[in-house]
Amino acid sequence: MSTDPLSRLASLEGVPSAYAAVRDGIDVMLRDRGLRRTSPETTIESLLRGAHASGVLEGSAATLAEVRAGAGDEVTLDAVRVSTELLSLSPSLSRSPLQALARIHALAAAGLPEETRGRPRDGDAADRLRGVGELLVRPTGAPSLLVAAVVHAELATAAPFGSHNGIVARAAERLVLVARGVDEKSLVVPEAGHLALRAAYESNLRGYAEGGPAGVHSWLLYAAEAYAAGAEASPLRRAAE
User: Fold this and answer.
1) Beta strands of 14-75 (E only): which ranges?
2) Distance CA 191, CA 182 (A)
3) pLDDT tens digit at each of 241 positions of the chain
4) Where are the domains of the chain?
5) I need a labelling partner for 149 at 20 to 30 A (CA). Which of 90, 107, 158, 222 fits?
């Protein structure tokens, strides 16, 4: 029996081809359009676009222009606060994933009482969080994009923290792509991909939580589509237009 918890998911019908295609598309974009256009400012813009999209998915009404100006409502400012430190957590995501996830939540929930920041809400939530941590440290042959999709869905549906779980889930997804070498400079905007496909995003997360194996399968196929949309939202893509 395989000790790889993601191997079965990676072999589901349509999943290998979907993830191979989206990875190829991301690689082509980063190679062809990023080679001479990549700069710290491009990464910052990608992170800001991601923070804005994540905030909107969490209920914010802020505009991207407001985010660029350092303004916006509390939800968006929480997402932006995460984005400012997110990439520095890449090394710890592989070595100490629970520490990295706790730090992401502490950043998002900075306005809440200290005792609630970075801590799971109860024992069951702590168990689910440990399960995510195990996924992040256990060797797997599954595509890194699929790992990111599963981590996102597990965090979003388990809601291990008392608040800001959506922001944490989407930030962790982006961080997996950075830490596992898919997008080391964080130029893809997966959060914007989910926002562009918002109805499908929300329905597939419900399916992941409640729909059994079919719901998980649908989420994985959806996530590949969302990553393609996230690549389209990259500042590299827009700069080339």
Assistant:
1) none
2) 16
3) 457 889 999 999 999 999 999 999 999 999 887 666 688 999 999 999 999 999 999 999 999 999 999 999 999 999 999 999 999 999 999 999 999 999 999 999 999 999 999 999 999 999 999 999 999 999 999 999 999 999 999 999 999 999 999 999 999 999 999 999 999 999 999 999 999 999 999 999 999 999 999 999 999 999 999 999 999 999 997 554 4
4) 7-240
5) 107
